[in-house]
Amino acid sequence: MKKFWVLAGILVIAMCALTPRSGAQQKERKDAAGHEWFNHAVFYEIYPRSFADSNGDGVGDLKGITSKLDYLQHLGVDAIWITPCFPSPQVDFGYDVSDYEAIDPMYGTLDDFDELVAKAKTHNIKIILDFVPNHTSDQHKWFLESKSSKTNPKRDWYIWRDGKPNGQPPNNWTSTFGGSTWTLDPTTGQYYYHYFYAQQPDLNWRNPEVRKAMLDCMRFWYKRGVAGFRLDAVDTLFEDPDLKDNPLLPGLDKFGFPNEHEIYNKKLPEVHDVMRDMRKLADEYNAVLIGETWTANVSELRDYYGEKNDELQMPMDLMLTQFPKLSAPLFREHITALEDAGGWPVFVISNHDIVRSYTRWGDGKNDDQIAKLAATMYMLLRGTPIMYYGEEIGMENNDPKRKEDVQDPQGRRGWPKEIGRDGERTPMQWNDRPNAGFTTGKPWLPVAPNYKTHNVATESKNPDSILNLYRKIIGLRGSEPALREGKYIALNGDDANVLAFARQDIRGSSVIVVLNMSDSPQSVKLEMSKVAAPSARATTLVAVGAKSSAEVMGTISLEPYGVYVAKVDSRLR
Ligand code: GLC
């Protein structure tokens, strides 16, 4: 009998652990400021093809990721976002999903995935998957059914239309990957819509069955222990049902088609209904939703949090990635706009679609120093940073030089104006041995030339490396209360070269961050009256190419792109 009660007890505990959290339980997970784990986490994006190859086929895999968990934990990463690792014909390298509830054999098995989740947990690392709601692969069984006949029950799961009487596509919309968004399917003589490649037909989110099926796919992964999703291309979920032509803009795009103002096939208001549905489900599992939210300005970004904060907890601010170079006034203005808008910022400086920040912001002379400055900025601003693998060692873009070497179809189609995204997707640089230690086989993309100097093994040994700067700065996010919840205070707002700010917690402890965004030496006297009493003293936390007189009110001298961070234990005036 006693045994029975012990067993019953164990069962109840196990059921509680598996049952989705109730609203009350979720609230308990919030801190005094109403924040949850992801507000204080450091996220790390992994492009699985390129991170670590465990079986020598030249392509990374899940076991490879599992083998690097110690490294990620030591770096200070709290969550990894893995770009799509589901079965896929790999036309868009995984963003053309042919089965949402399995793992592509190229990356391993569901067992490998479960092992990754379990081992990551022992490293205090959460797993975020990439969910592609806008489109499936044209090889997905749903699309194969849909295209089979006009009367197939799944016909309306995608967007099918007749062409114009002259045989032309239904309207003038052009794909972001080149050409018309419409492809004629000979089986039924109708066109189907695809915002991206023809092999990526758009789902019809106005069909309730599609909504249900897609939410079920998300649930499948929540039950397997994922802590959330990065949502792909959410701007493009809906299209105008009347298919009105987009107004044309001057000039041609990189593929030679007229530029358009995409008002009828992007950012339609219905997107927000879907975000709310996804959020409701995420809340059942205490999960986080990160959005690939390409916005023109901060106010558009604000909309993605939801009027009642009931949409995405983490819409990505991708605007910083569009700043062509470092500029104190430009960055200051953007950060001020973010702060004024409210919401918890989500900073991104590179990803698998964007030229790496090392190459984009580098000047060819001070590249490592610039990488350190960029790291300090986005790790210490108020918000959550999402790193891109290799950023922490200063990986550079390695763009293809010849069209025949290009893997990304976009680059083959648009060459030479559009060279594709291979350059930012090259293998992770683990050491200075052949293939940078990424694979024992032939890597699917060539390793970037700087791997001899910029790799994990070499940089781990050098206290002044970019990698060790990242480790230190990430550590400060954990050890300094002001960097956790502290408010942002802009300092020296008129300085054309130096971006300076303080983070200050409610008890008055502050961290000041001073970044010389110019290629000439600068010396600054900070407006410390905004932060501390005149007698307050500063303790240097990080000084790279920077010096300060011991008193915080003193002058800080910065070399080109110098970085200075100090703690100020202050009594406020
Ligand atoms: C997103 C992904 C990109 C992909 C596209 C289509 O922008 O980041 O890599 O090609 O969606 O799925």
Task: Furnish the topology, listing elements before pairings.
Layout: H1 2-18, H2 23-28, E1 43-46, H3 62-67, H4 69-75, E2 79-82, H5 110-122, E3 126-131, H6 141-148, E4 160-161, E5 182-185, E6 190-193, H7 208-223, E7 228-231, E8 248-252, E9 258-260, H8 271-284, E10 288-291, H9 298-303, E11 314-315, H10 328-341, E12 346-348, H11 357-361, H12 367-380, E13 384-388, H13 409-414, H14 456-461, H15 466-479, H16 481-484, E14 487-491, E15 498-504, E16 509-516, E17 522-525, E18 538-548, E19 555-569
Parallel strand pairs: 1-2, 1-13, 2-3, 3-7, 7-10, 10-11, 12-13
Antiparallel strand pairs: 4-6, 5-6, 8-9, 14-15, 15-16, 16-19, 17-19, 18-19
Helix pairs in contact: 7-8, 12-15
This protein binds alpha-D-glucopyranose (GLC).
List keywords for this structure.
single chain; 573 residues; alpha/beta; eight-stranded parallel sheet; six-stranded antiparallel sheet; globular; binds alpha-D-glucopyranose
